[in-house]
Amino acid sequence: MDTAISIKNLGYSYSDSSILKGLSFNIKTGEFFVILGPNGSGKTTLMKIAAGIIKGYKGKLNILGQPIDSYTKRNLAKKIAFVPQMIPTDSPFTVSEVVLMGRSPHSGFLGFSRQKDVETAMEAISFAGVEHLAHRRINQLSGGESQRVFIAKAICQEPEIILLDEPTASLDLAHQIKTMDLMEQLKNEKKMTIVMISHDINLAAMYGTCILLLKNGKIISLGSPEDVLTFDTLEKAYGCKLLVDKSPVGLFTRITPVPQRYLEEDKQKNMLLRNFSK
Ligand code: ADP
Fold first, then answer.
1. Which residue has its alpha carbon closest to ligand 1 atom 25?
2. pTM score
3. Which CATH number describes the domain made up of 3-229?
């Protein structure tokens, strides 16, 4: 497996406040890489740096073997697509028009769309399951619908790597699964590398091939879901006790939040919880 993103001693500060503190890790091509961690741990900042949006970081960052700064904006967009957390919902454009904009790094002189661009946009719309919305305006869609349209736009860009910042946050359960299945399909069928920030540890356990757990700009743990999502590591990261066992469906690691009152009622339950957790 080659390396999609290589990060060495990466540091970043907003004014005087140090956010990322010397991170080093690689993301292999073809991974479904999930970034987890409590609020404020630096996940979005890290992703925006990898997307080429935030500059002025310290350390080394290579995308597909080349320093990110050696790419032109257009060439970087052929390699990486970024679906931000806050997607614009006030756009007057139609869904088809927004998805077609994903072709801009590939389009020819003066940015005219060619037949192939239109076909790729239609395929991306169908792949993301938003055909029924194609003629609607973005400003008439729900948050979840526009999220899927911007995923279609990223697919239309035909990048090698897709970065997604909490793409399932505003989706109902069925659409969360649909979105995760779609990303898995992109990874398996189109050989894309998927990098996703999530707050849903169970989705990360079910779909992630590699998990990065961040806290305060540092790596708490990195590895397979089984290695990273343990009782002790999660307590260290989130500062709360979670039941960690296996789901009978597919034997995925399963994480269940436990109400504080359950633990307060009986101290022995703390022990039970730890012992139940594998
Ligand atoms: P996460 O995605 O893990 O919640 P972020 O990368 O969004 O973390 O933020 C990390 C820290 O950086 C937070 O403390 C946040 O308040 C701060 N931060 C984020 N964006 C800015 C900004 N533009 N200016 C100053 N501080 C920021």
1. 14
2. 0.93
3. 3.40.50.300
